[in-house]
Every structure is written in C-alpha cells, then in structure tokens.
Amino acid sequence: xxxSTLLDGQMRLNGAYYNQKMRGLTTTVFIQQGGxxxxxxxxxxxxxxxxxEFDLSYAANDKLQIDLGVAMDFSxxxxxxxxxxxxEGGDTIVGGQSFFIMDGQDTRFSPDxxxxxxxxxxxxxxxxxxxxxxxxMYYSDEYKATNAxxxxxxQSSYATIDLAATxxxxxxxxxxxxxxxxxxxxxxxxxxxxxxxxxxxxxxNSPRTFGVRVSRNF
Length: 218
Hints:
two-stranded antiparallel ribbon, 13-stranded antiparallel β-sheet
C-alpha cells in the first residue's frame, strides 16, 4: 500500500492491494433431531481473497472539497460446500444432507466494485455564519447475501444519494444540519438467511429518511 500528500497538501491519495487465503472455514447445516431442528458447524473449506482499494481527498480551493473512494474485491471460494436447507436444488447429497458446491464462486457481500463520491462547498455568509451543502453518492455492483446460490438472496447493482446542509453560527456555538438519506429510496438487501429448513428471511436497508440535527457547543 501507499499513502501520499500531493499538490502542496491540497490532495491526499492512498491505495492498497491485498491478497490472502483463509483456510479451515466452517459452514452450518441443519439436522432433523426428533421434533426439532439442530444447527451444526462442519468443515466448509477455504477462500481466496484479493483486491484493490483507493481513497482520494482533494481540496480544490478554500471552499470546494471532493472525496472519492474506490474498492475492487475479487473474493472467491477456493473449496467450499454449503448446506442446502430446501428439498430441491443442491449439487450433491451426503448422508441425506443436500449441499451446494461453491468452488470458484463469489463469497457473499463481495461486490466486484464499489465507490463513493462526496462533495461539499463552503458558503461564507458573514455575520450570519457559514453554510456547507454536501452530497454523498454510493455505488455497488451486484452481490449475493448468502453463500448458497438462492435466487432470492441476489442484490442487483444500485446507487444511493445522501444530501445535507450544515449551518454554523458566526461564533461557532450553534449548528443546524437538515439532511435526506437515500434520496431515491433504493431498496437494498442487507441480510438473507434460512431458519428451520424452509423459512427464507431477508432484511433491507432503511427507506428515504430525513430530519434536522441541532447542536450547541459548550
């Protein structure tokens, strides 16, 4: 990796490359035991993970600030089996348990590309203080929310936008910040799992939210 300061301190640019292999992973299977279902951890395999990350912070002038972050992740299973909790699908049957063979497949929550872009601008209003409007944009490639290849755990690529404006009084004692998060109300899968062999459960991000934060410095 590297860290750098450029343009007489106006720009900061950092980057890193990583490459690792994780062995001895475990996975969870569900076993019928009498009138209930038991979860059991069993050997699962290994993962090869590598990627690139960059972040840039640029003060274009004394008013405009630009921040950029880029991450490329190419994590894949080297050898990995994950139990199939349904009666259909699966690649093989071992001891009555259906398994998916995930060798060479993407791991969950590992989009190939994500990036963020943030911009803010300082407006000096003299005795009325300062106002800093800002926008934050985030993009993610598609990913899956489970290691098993269930169709309902796939998240397509998406982008979100957050807006805010921060007013600060001239003496710095008071601050007011109205904001809107997830402006376009994107629906994003944050978790997917299976309970008791047949219940598929998913969670999503927050919808569009807005509000005002007021603070005072003492």
